[in-house]
């Protein structure tokens, strides 16, 4: 049984929790971060720092071409971060991003002799990204296996849990404070609890408050 895994890792709450999950499940873990010229270089720095602290082999792949294809609020200063209107996609959406990231992660995984690929995508906090859905991940798993004649296993530990349960998972590893203080989710590039006002901070904080309250209630 191959116990080597590649984690798609952005340095945010979700992928850091996935990294801890992978460190528990697998003997050898490699983290891969994509540089697509994010507005906030801090995201890459943050991911690098965490990987270093945890002693995880870390690769940063250059995906700047993504910005050529899909200019959006995460990469361009002149586009504001906005929630989707009328059920539309938010302005942070990069078309096909997860598909591309997972495909490149798979190429790296095969080069490294790893069969397992972990991604923090989640259908519960579904903000309309079609390539975060479970059905897509299953479909891509089949496609990658056929494309490279290799048996990848795509893992999505967060697929069916909400933000509060993601905090609970980090806590179950004894890493709640680590994830809370060291990760970057904020669209304004502020580490830890963030700016407190952008959509990512609001979602993150709501989940944390909900989890801490339920934990308190269970005492
Ligand atoms: Zn924020």
Automatic annotation (TrEMBL):
Pfam families: QueC (PF06508). Homodimer. Pathway: Purine metabolism; 7-cyano-7-deazaguanine biosynthesis. Zn(2+) binds at residues 186, 195, 198, 201. This is 7-cyano-7-deazaguanine synthase. It catalyses: 7-carboxy-7-carbaguanine + NH4(+) + 2 ATP = 7-cyano-7-carbaguanine + 2 AMP + 2 diphosphate + 2 H(+). The gene is queC. ATP binds at residues 9-19.
């Amino acid at each position: 049984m191959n116990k080597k895994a590649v984690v798609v890792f952005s340095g945010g709450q979700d992928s850091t929790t996935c990294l801890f999950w992978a460190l528990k499940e697998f003997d050898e873990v490699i983290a891969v971060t994509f540089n697509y010229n994010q507005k906030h270089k801090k995201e890459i720095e943050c991911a690098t720092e965490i990987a270093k602290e945890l002693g995880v082999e870390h690769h940063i792949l250059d995906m700047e071409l993504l910005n050529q294809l899909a200019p959006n609020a995460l990469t361009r200063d002149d586009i504001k971060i906005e929630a989707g209107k009328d059920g539309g996609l938010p302005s942070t959406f990069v078309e096909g991003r997860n598909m591309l990231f997972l495909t490149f992660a798979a190429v790296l995984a095969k080069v490294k002799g790893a069969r397992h690929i972990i991604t923090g995508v989640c259908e519960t906090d579904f903000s309309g990204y079609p390539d975060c859905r479970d059905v897509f991940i299953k479909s891509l798993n089949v496609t990658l296996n056929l494309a490279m004649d290799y048996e990848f296993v795509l893992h999505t530990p967060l697929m069916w849990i909400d933000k509060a349960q993601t905090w609970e998972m980090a806590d179950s590893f004894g890493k709640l404070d680590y994830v809370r203080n060291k990760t970057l989710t904020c669209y304004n590039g502020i580490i830890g609890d963030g700016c407190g006002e952008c959509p990512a901070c609001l979602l993150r904080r709501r989940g944390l408050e909900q989890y801490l309250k339920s934990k308190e209630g269970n005492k």
